[in-house]
Amino acid sequence: MTTPLNVLFLCTHNSARSILAEALLNHLGGERFRGFSAGSSPREAQKPNPIGLEVLAEAGLPTDGLHSKCWDVFAAPDAPRMDLIITVCDSAAGETCPIWPGRPATAHWGYADPSAVAGGPDAQRAAFRQTLLALRQRISLLISLPTSELSPERLQGSARALAGGEHVG
């Protein structure tokens, strides 16, 4: 691969799971992958969850440049072309998505919302750590796939197989 594979992670508000996934892929993906994130309906003045940013920093992952944005940004004609779009929350998976330029592969990797965990900041912090670990495992499998599994013809099947924890390749 000469150009990186662009992966867009989607969630409803783009404040927790999709932000974690973007940071992880950009950290682990080397020159083969580039991660992005967006939300179907971020709230006005939405920002990444501060506990999520704290957990990322605690794990040694850069948080500079992470910000919440609407998925419409990536449907614009001048947006980076996505190769793979992964929804990471069930509500975003059920929504009608924009028509993405280039017809990228799609997959759903569902995770519970760590910011919705009851019990206060300590319980949420633990939930964010657990979500980060689960995302790290799946993203590690994605980035370890051979180039043949990342071809446009096979990418959707490969990414969807990872949702079920199957080993591909």
From TrEMBL:
Oxidoreductase among keywords: yes
Protein name: Arsenate reductase ArsC
Keywords, alphabetical: Oxidoreductase
Superkingdom of source: Bacteria
EC assignment: 1.20.4.4
Class of the enzyme per the UniProt entry, highest EC level: oxidoreductase
